[in-house]
Amino acid sequence: MGRTVHGRGDTLQEALQAAIRDLLDTDEVELGLTGDRLDSWSGEARLVLDVAPVAEVEEDVEPVEDVEDHLEATGEDAEDEQAPLISAQDLDEEADAAADFLEGLLDAMDLPGDLRIKLHEDHAELEVIDIGSGALIGRRGQTLDAIQELVRCSLQRQFQRRARVKVDAEGYRARRLEKLLEKADEAIDAVLESGEAERLEPMDVFERKVIHQLVAEVDGLTSRSQGREPARRVIIERD
Predict the structure, then answer these.
(1) Does residue 177 carry a pLDDT above 80?
(2) Which CATH class, in words, describes the domain spanning 3-170?
(3) Is the Cα torsion angle 169, 173, 176, 178 positive or negative in sign?
(4) Distance from first CA to last CA of the chain, Å, rounded?
(5) Rounded distance between C-alpha atoms, residue 6 and residue 238, angstroms
């Protein structure tokens, strides 16, 4: 059977964070979300979501409760480009499950919006469009980040593997990535000039991968990831 996840808080961000805690059965989840009360909400924000049951696993396979911890424990970086690519079938399953989840979330929040799904070689991208407001994005993308984490946790529990689904709303991620690339270019110039390492702002796994690819094209420089989600960031330094 599935389960029902409840999230309540004074802001939408707090309600999403509470839902994640309920989903993971732990009080140790901390997204570090801040911000003013959303104008479109009054009183207490509440979310009630129906979550699909966790997929069955072999008895001799220990479930991975925290994929990032597992990857670090085995010496693999979360955005390691040499990691096996997900199969088209598995990616399609994750995209469908994420779409169902997001549709339920929109209904719970009483928001309009349509879903646009794009399947890439190594991940699926789900974008919510025609919302008519920035309610899903929030201040500096904080609400969207919380939704991304909520979807990631749900898919991880359901499929018992690292989720490869990216959630966007009204093209916010593309606009943010463009700004991140500009900052990365400035950081690259600074490292080449001073020789001192530069730390970029926290990013998600998809953004970090793009920045790593950008740095790899520059002779004499290298990049690495540092920190834990959601505060994991890219360090650019000399070889």
Answers:
(1) yes
(2) alpha beta
(3) negative
(4) 52
(5) 47
d(CA 72, CA 85): 18
By the 8 A CB rule, do 188 and 215 touch? yes
Torsions phi, psi for 28 (to 5 deg): -95, 5
**Range with the poorest average pLDDT among 67-81, 84-98, 107-121, 191-205:** 67-81
DSSP-derived letter for residue 27 is S
Instruction: Name the average pLDDT for the chain.
Output: 75
Q: Which amino acid is at 217?
A: E
Topology (CATH level 3) of domain 173-238 = Ribosomal Protein S8; Chain: A, domain 1 (3.30.1370)
Strand partners, 169: 128
* Tokens of residue 1, six digits: 């059977």
Q: Position of tokens 């490869």? A: 164
Q: Is the model more confident about 67 or about 189?
A: 189
Delimit the domains of the chain by residue range: 3-170, 173-238
Query: pLDDT class for 154, splitting at 50, 70, 90?
Result: confident
Who wins on pLDDT, 118 or 19? 118
Q: What is the pLDDT of residue 58?
A: 35
Q: What is the SS3 assignment for 129-180?
A: ECCCCCCCCCHHHHHHHHHHHHHHHHHHHHHCCCCCEEEEECCHHHHHHHHH
Pair of tokens at residue 233: 């960031």
